[in-house]
User: Fold these one by one.
Assistant:
Number 1:
Amino acid sequence: MSGPMLSIEGVETRYGKIVALRGVDMQVNEGEIVTLIGANGAGKSTLMMTICGNPRASEGRILFEGRDITRMPTHDIMKLRIAQSPEGRRIFPRMTVYENLQMGAALGGYAHFDADLERMFEMFPRLKERLHQRGGTLSGGEQQMLAIARALMSRPRLLLLDEPSLGLAPLVVRQIFDVIRDLNATEGLTVFLVEQNAYHALKLAHRGYVLVNGAITLSGSGRELLENPDVKSAYLEGGA
C-alpha cells in the first residue's frame, strides 16, 4: 500500500448555521479499505457528500491523489474516477438493470462495456437474471447490488460506499461485504466505506475512524477498534 489517495484536512461543513463536520482529518491510502463508523446523525453521509462537492466544505481541503478537489464541480470530481454508491440505493427506478449499468459506464466510455458487464454478473448473478427488469421492481438487496455494480462500471480508482447494509437481510449484507473484500484483494480497489453496522465494517476494513457529532474521536486498525472498549459499548453491544 502506497501513500494517501484521499486526504481530508481540517474539513468543516455547514448547513446554514449548523456545523455538521468539525475539523475532520482523515486519509485513505491506495489499496486500502477504510471505514467511518458512527451513530445516526453523526455526520457520516455529510462527509461522503462533501468529498463529492455537494455540500462544499466551508473550511479545510480535500485532496485526491495530491490534487485539491475541494472547490471542484461534482461532475469533474467523478471524472477523476471516483465513484459513489450513495445512501438509499439511488438507482434509476424506471430504467432497466441493463440501462442503469450503461449509465454507470458512461463516464469511462464504453470500450470495456461487455467485459465489465460479465464481471458484474459474476459478482452479482441476480443482476443477470433481472437484466431487463426496471430497477424499481427489484428487492432492496438487488437494488443495492445494482447501485454498487453501477458505480463499478465506471472502473473507479476510489469507490465511496454510503451505508451499503442499510435495511438489508444479514445474508445479503454478507454477500455484499464479500464482494467488496474480493475486489480489494484481487484488483486492489481502494474503498471508503461509511457504515452504521460497525461490526461488519470493522471486520472488513484495514483501518477505521469513529465520528461523533461531526468530529473524529478515534482511529486505528479495524481490529484495534473492534477490541476498543469504548467502541464495543457504543457500537457493538446494541448501544447507541
Number 2:
Amino acid sequence: MTKRRRHRKRIFLPKVQTTFCILSLIFILGCFVYYGSRLYKYYKIYNPKNEAGEILLNLPSKIIDDSMIVESGSGLYLINNNYVYKGEEVDNYILINNILFRIIRINSDKTMDLVMDEYVNKVMWNKEITTYDKSSIKTYLEKTILPLVNENYLVKTSYCTDKIYELKEVSCDNTNNDSYIRLLGINDYLNSLDDDKSYMSGDYVWLYNSGKNNAWHTTEKYISNSDPNNLYGVKAVITLKNSVTYLKGNGTKDNPYTLEENNQDIKVVSYLDINDNVYIVYEVGSNYLKVESNKLLKDKQMFDKTSTNYEKSSLKTYLENTYLDKLKINNYLTTVDFNGIESKIGLLSSKDLKFNSDLNNYYLNDVEDEEVVVYNGSVLKSAPSTKRNIRYALGIKKNLKIVSGNGSKYAPFIVEVN
C-alpha cells in the first residue's frame, strides 16, 4: 500500500508586510548607528584624551563638579539648566591667549559665555544710532579683537536684536548668531546682579542693546544709555565650545582656569620683561613688535606749551632725547610708525589696543577740536599745557631671546639683555 506524501503549503507574505519588515529593520539599524555615533561623540567630548592617551578633564564639567551651587549671595546659581555667576565676589576667572576673562554662565549644552575682565580700548558705539549689527563697534570687535583669540575654541555666540526703550521692558524675542564675538547685553548684566552688586560693575562699558536715540552701557554701579558717539570701554564676549579641556587653575584671579600651556611665541597681549620694565605687545609686524609700557612715567609732563602737534611737541623731544637712553635697551629698539610718525619711542593713538585699564589720564598722539586727546573716562580732550600722565610705546626688534616665563601677566617673558 503506497503512502501519499503530504505537500507542505508555502506561505507567502504579502508584499506590504515584507516591505514594512525591511523598512523597520533599516530604521532600527539607522537608530543604532545614529545614537551610537552620538554617544561616542559625547563620550569623547566629556572624556577627552591627549596624544599620549592620558585622560583630560572637560572644563565646564569640572567647574560644575567642583563648585558649590548657591541660592543666595555671590556664587554659581542653577537657573533653567544654565549655571550663572552672580554677585561681586566670584571665582570665575579664565585665561585664554593671555587675556583674562570672566565666565558669565555655563549654558545647558555646556558651552560657556565669557566676557573680558578689562576693557581693551574706548571707542564710540557708532557715529549715530543704528542697530548693533550695522554699528561700527561690531566691526571693531570682529576685525580688531577677535583675532586675539584662538577661533578653534569658539562657537558662534547669540545676541538679542530687540530694541530696548526702558529697563522695565527688556525683551529678547529675536536673536542673531552671525558672529563669534559680541558685546555684553542688558540681560547679561541684570542676570549677574546679587543685591544690586555684580562683578561686571565699575566701568563705563558699551552694551549691544540700542533704543530709539541712544545705545546702552554699564556705569560704575548700574546701566544707563547715552549718545552712541561717546567713547566708552569695549569688553568682548565670546562663547567657548563645550569640548574645551581643563589644564590647571581654580578660577581665582591669581590662579585662573587655563586651557593650554603658553608656548614661546610672542603675540599680541604677551607680556615682556626687558631690563626690569614690563611691556605689553599690542601689535606684531613682520620684523618688529609694538609694545606699550605697563606703567606710567613717575612724573607727569605737559604735551607742549602751545602745540597740539606731537611731531613738534616738547614731549616728543623729551621722550626721544632724554627718557629713551634711561631704558638702556638701545640694541633692541627699532623705528616703527606711531600714528604717522617714525620713531623708536612714541605715544599710543586712539585706535591702538590698550591693555591694563588701571592706567588712565595719559596723553595720546591724537588731536581733536584743537585739543590733545587724553585716555581717561569719557572726558578725552585737554589743553597741551596741562601736565598729565605719560604712557609711552616702543618699537622692538622681533628676534628677542627669551630666557624664561610664558608671556602671561603673571609670568612675563624675561628677555635677555646684553
